[in-house]
Structure formats: C-alpha cells, structure tokens
Design brief:
With about 675 residues, the protein is an alpha+beta fold. It contains 20 helices and 22 strands.
C-alpha cells in the first residue's frame, strides 16, 4: 500500500514538473497562476518577457500590479474573478502596464482552478501582447474610412464635373469639338451655330477639310497628325462661315488615345486680328510722330548750342580784325576761338555717343584715378552748397574704355544731380568692383567682372512713370531751344558701346542713384614704351603723304605740316595715294589719310598698304565713320576730327617712331 502511494506521489510530481515545463516554455504568452485571493503563485518566463517583472518580484503579489490605475480603481480584477467563478472563465481586451510603466494592449483570459471536489483553489491568467495588432487594426480602419470618404467625394466630384462639363459645353462661347483621328466631326457644341452659322447636325460626320480655307488645308492636316500624338501648341487657321466669309480661329487640343479622339477648343480671333492691325497702324503713326518730335527737339537744341558757339567764334574773329589789338588781347581771342572749337567738337561727340556711333578711343585705365581727378571740376560745376563725397576701394579698378567719354558721362550725371538738388545737397560717387550686373529693364542679370560707378544725389528723385524714358532724347523737361537734352542719352550710348550697362534707382523725394557698369579689364594697363619715348618728339623732317578728298581740309593739313617743317604730298583718294607710293621709291615716312572717302575707304587703304608696305606707318583721321564705330580702328593710329596742329604733330611723330622701331626689328630679324 505504501509502495503504491509512493508511486502515485512520484507520478504526480513528475506530472507537475512536466506541466510546469510546458507552461514556462510558452514565452510568447504571460501565464500567471494565483490563489483564490488573486495573489501570484506561479509566474512563467513569458510573463517576465511580456510584463517585465521576474518570478521573485511577483510571487505573492496581486494581479493589480499589471493592470492600469483606472482599471484597478474600477475593480476590473475583481469583476474578472467573479465572472470566472460564475462561468468558468472570463475574456477581455484592454490596456495593461509593464514594469517600466509603458502601457500595452493585450487580449487576456482568466480561468478558475478547482480541485476534485469542485472547490475553487485559484485562477490562471493568460495574456498576449496585441499592441502592434491593435495599431495595425486602427490604421486599417482609418485607411478604410479614408478610402470610403474618398470614394464618396470622387462620386460627388464626377457627378459635379459631369454637370459642369455639360453646362460648359452648352454655354461656352468658344468652339468645342470632339473629332476622330481622321479629322471627322463627332460632336460639336452650340457655339458653332453662334460663330459659324452651322447647326450641330450639319457638322457631325463632316470632314474638317470641308470647312477650312483652301490655303490652310495642308497646315490643318499636319496639325491633326500632331494632335493625335500629343497636346497641340496654339494653332490658327481659317474656317468658312455659313454665309461664305471666313473667320480666323485659334485652336488648342489634346488627344484621347483610348477613345481615338481629339478634343479641341477654338476661339474666334477675327476681331482681335483687326484690332491688332489697327493698333499696329496707330503705333506706326505714333512712332512717326515721335520721330518728328525727336528731330525737332534735337534740331532746336543743337541749333541753339551751335549758334551760341558760332556767335563766340564770329565775334572773336571780328575782334581779331581790329588793328589796335594788343598782343595780350590777340592771344586771349585766339584761345577763345580754340576753346569754342573744342566745345563744338564735344557737342558732336555727344551726338555720336547718343546714337552709339561715337568712335571711341579705348585704353586700359584705373577708374579710381579719373574720379579723383574730376573732383575739383565737379566741385566747380555743382557749386559750394553741394558736398561731394568720393568712395573707392584700395584695389585697382581697371577698365578698357574711352577715359574721356567716361569723364564726360560723370560730368553729365553730376550736372543732372545738381539740377535735381536745386544746387544744394550731397553728391556721392562710389567706385566698386562687382561680380555681376543685376537685371536691368528687360535684360537678365549678367555674371562677370565689372567696375561699377555709382552717382547718388539727395534730390527730388525721378517719378516711376518716367524711369523707363529718361534715356530717350525726346523725353525731356527742357523747353525747345534750351539745350540738346542729350546728357543721359550720351551716358547711355557710351556705356552700351563700351559693352556695359547703366541702371537707375530712384524714389520721389529721396534722391536718385545712377550706376554705370563697365567690363573690368585683366590687363595691367601699362602703356607701350614708344608712348613715352617718341610720343612727344615728332620728326619735323619726315615726308608725309596726305590722303584727303575734301580740298579745303587737305590744303589746311598740307599748309599746317609744311609750317612745322614736314615735307608733304596731297592725294585726293586712295587710288592716287597707292600710285604716289609706287612712284616714290620709298620716300614717304608716314601716310595720313581720311577714313571716309569715295571708292576705297581710309581703313581699306591702310589694310592694303599694310600688305604692300608692312613697315610704313598709317595714321587715320575722321569726324565720324560707321565702320570705325562698329569695327574699330583695325590697329591703326586714329586722330579724331577736329584736331589741333599739336595733336596732328604728336600723332605723326608717334607713328613714325613706331615705324622706325618696327623696321629696325624687321631688319634685325632678317639678318639675325
């Protein structure tokens, strides 16, 4: 008997150990056994993994420990225990908490444990972490709800758009059409009746070509082929009205490859074309009127200035004719005539610069030096009540431009600033090196190396409506006969011809800033050694071939050079000059030629002589030449008309010096 009892006990122990091992191996489930009061008697490995507490921490503890505070307060544990006693087990899904305080969603079941006599001896709580599943279910529910609402909205939108499409189709003033890829009308809207006179039944089934102007048929067929493969750019052709007249129609279209259809919209442009033609006609008339006004303004201004200059010259000549003149007065009168001639030359220079036809004399120079040298002159021009401030960087600001024209531009802008300030205020001139020209008027920004010269005043400013017109010659506040009004036009012409740009910024009552941008030069600006060696030492014994078609100018140059000791010969044109050189046996040291002559020009003559006599120096002279203005001097020395005798002598001296050095170098290279 004892042996049998021992055997049963051993078997029971083995069974309990077996069951305990099975329970502990279920690591994905928290399996907790309690006594009848809900105190933990068993805590498996899954409970440790799911809830965080180990077995020693939980044995003897209440189930309340892993329920939320809210559920503990509501007596949730006791409710589940009562339900399990009543039904054998109770299921629930709710939030629980882990050892670290984190909450998680779990599905659980509480089962009552009974002995052989059916008495409750405890409970088993099984929990499974379903947090990720809950979140997934919530996201799925959210997406399903969103999809449902989108479907409802889509159905509503489709219904609304269908109604709108039908309304648009019926009410549109433009031609709407659906046609197949063969160009056959399949559906048209009522606008076809209003614009072209055809009822829809008269058009459906017809070919497009039957309505198109004969001259537009090929163009229309090509457009149809293009429209069947992709959206068609704006396209125009002429459609025949039912009354036989034609209408200009502008089309846009897009294909539907699935249906094999083209959807197109056409707008009647006939009235717009007529209005455009009328506008062009009006613009032409306005432009012609503006040209006449500009010519009148320029003529009055130039006549005013030239008459002033001629008055000085004529009066001074009359004074020179007097026999009782002292030498001091004679010298003063001669200087007055020379100064007046220089001012007249400057006026023509302004006119040419305004037209961007000025023959510039570009050289590399530092803009800073020019601005500093102008300060005293600007102070005199603007008056004592205007303070002048100069700002310039320490680094060189080199440009390759005409320094004289730059000075003229600065002076013109300073005078404008003086007038805008009514003779009192502050004038600031700043020189900076910049890496771009900002967007100006209709031009995009330009990157590169530039020197910017800004002139800022504290004057009345330029009204916004005048900003775009201030560089126009006929847009001026000056009365007729009160000056040429070419100041800003000259600045604009010089800047553009030099490869630069000019910008203006102004606010009414706050002043104006003009910024002149010129391309920055990488050249060091060093002058040729010959400039210093020979530039001021003309050879008065040289033999000069003068080429001038104007008899008076030719006689003047011949007489002037002979007075200086030169030997001269005058040729009336390039042909005579070439013949004279061929017969001279090398007697001429330099050729002095006008640029503008009948037949071969001075530049063409110089190029021909450079080919035949490579070491014979050529000096050109001109008051204006379109070739010089657009193509430059082609490397020839240029003397600008009108010129003084001293300037002529210096130019010839420099040219002959260069010729001697070049000839010596040539001989040296030949004889090594």
């Amino acid at each position: 008997m004892v042996a049998e009892l021992q055997s049963e006990v051993a078997e029971l122990r083995w069974s309990n150990a077996h069951h305990r091992a099975v329970v502990d191996s279920a690591i994905d489930y928290a399996i907790v056994a309690t006594d009848p009061e809900g105190r933990v008697t068993h805590w498996n490995e899954g409970a440790r993994r799911v809830l965080g507490w180990n077995r020693e921490e939980m044995l003897g503890e209440s189930l309340h420990r892993f329920f939320t505070e809210k559920d503990v307060a509501n007596g949730q544990v006791e409710k589940e225990m009562r339900e399990a006693l009543a039904t054998g087990h109770g299921k629930d899904e709710r939030w629980h908490r882990r050892k670290d305080g984190e909450q998680f969603w779990a599905s659980g079941e509480l089962t009552v444990l009974r002995d052989n006599s059916a008495c409750a001896i405890g409970y088993v709580k099984v929990l499974r972490d379903r947090t990720e599943q809950r979140y997934a279910d919530e996201e799925r529910a959210r997406l399903e709800d969103q999809l449902r609402r989108l479907n409802e909205k889509l159905a509503t939108d489709v219904s609304r758009r269908t109604a709108e499409r039908n309304q648009l189709w019926e009410a549109s003033p433009d031609l709407l059409v659906m046609l197949d890829f063969e160009g056959v009308f399949r559906e048209v809207n009522p606008a076809w009746t209003a614009l072209l006179g055809y009822l829809p039944d008269e058009l459906v089934g017809q070919q497009v070509d039957s309505l198109v102007h004969p001259d537009d048929v090929l163009l229309t067929e090509r457009a149809l082929r293009d429209a069947s493969t992709g959206p068609l750019p704006v396209f125009e052709n002429r459609y025949r009205h039912k009354d036989g007249s034609y209408r200009q129609i502008s089309w846009v279209s897009a294909p539907d490859q699935d249906l094999g259809m083209i959807y197109a919209t056409g707008r009647d442009m006939s009235a717009a074309r007529e209005a455009q033609l009328a506008l062009h006609h009006a613009e032409d008339q306005l432009r012609q009127s503006q040209k006449v006004e500009a010519v009148g303004q320029l003529t009055g201004g130039v006549a005013h200035d030239f008459n002033n200059l001629l008055t000085v010259i004529r009066g001074t000549v009359d004074l020179l004719r007097r026999s009782d003149l002292t030498e001091e007065k004679r010298t003063r009168y001669i200087d007055a005539i020379a100064d007046t001639a220089d001012r007249a030359a400057k006026l023509t220079s302004q006119l040419l610069a305004f037209a961007r036809r000025q023959t510039l004399k570009p050289m590399v120079f530092d803009v800073r030096n020019n601005i500093v040298n102008l300060k005293e002159m600007l102070a005199t021009l603007t008056g004592a009540r205007i303070a002048i401030k100069l700002e310039a960087p320490e680094e060189p600001c080199l440009v390759n431009a005409d320094p004289g024209q730059l000075d003229t531009a600065i002076v013109n802008m300073a005078i404008n600033a003086r007038d805008a300030m009514n003779g009192e205020g502050r004038l600031s001139i700043a020189v900076t090196c910049v890496s771009m020209i900002p967007a100006v008027r209709a031009h995009d920004a330009v990157s590169g190396d530039f020197v910017a010269v800004s002139i800022t005043d504290t004057g009345t400013g330029v009204p916004p409506e005048q900003i775009d017109h201030i560089f126009e010659p006929f847009y001026t506040t000056k009365g007729v006969g009160q000056g040429t009004g070419l100041g800003l036009s000259q600045v604009f012409g010089f800047t553009k011809q030099s490869g630069g740009e000019i910008a203006v910024a102004s606010r009414a009552g706050e002043g104006t800033t003009f910024t002149l941008y010129l391309p920055r030069s990488a050249d060091t600006g060093n002058k040729d050694v010959l400039e210093h060696t020979y530039g001021s030492a003309p050879r008065h014994d040289a033999c000069v071939l003068i080429v001038e078609d104007n008899e008076e100018v030719g006689s003047f140059a011949t007489e002037a050079l002979r007075e200086l000791g030169y030997r001269t010969h005058l040729a009336a044109d390039a042909r005579q000059a070439i013949e004279a050189l061929a017969d001279s046996g090398g007697a001429y040291d330099v050729v002095f030629s006008d640029v503008v002559m009948p037949g071969m020009s001075g530049i063409e003559l110089g190029q021909e002589l450079r080919r035949i006599y490579p070491h014979l120096p050529v000096v050109l002279t001109s008051g204006y030449s379109s070739v010089l203005a657009t193509s430059g001097t082609h490397g020839f020395e240029l003397l600008q008309k009108p010129y003084s005798i001293d300037e002529l002598a210096r130019a010839l001296g420099k040219a002959t010096a260069r010729g001697e050095v070049a000839g010596a170098d040539y001989v040296s290279s030949r004889h090594g």
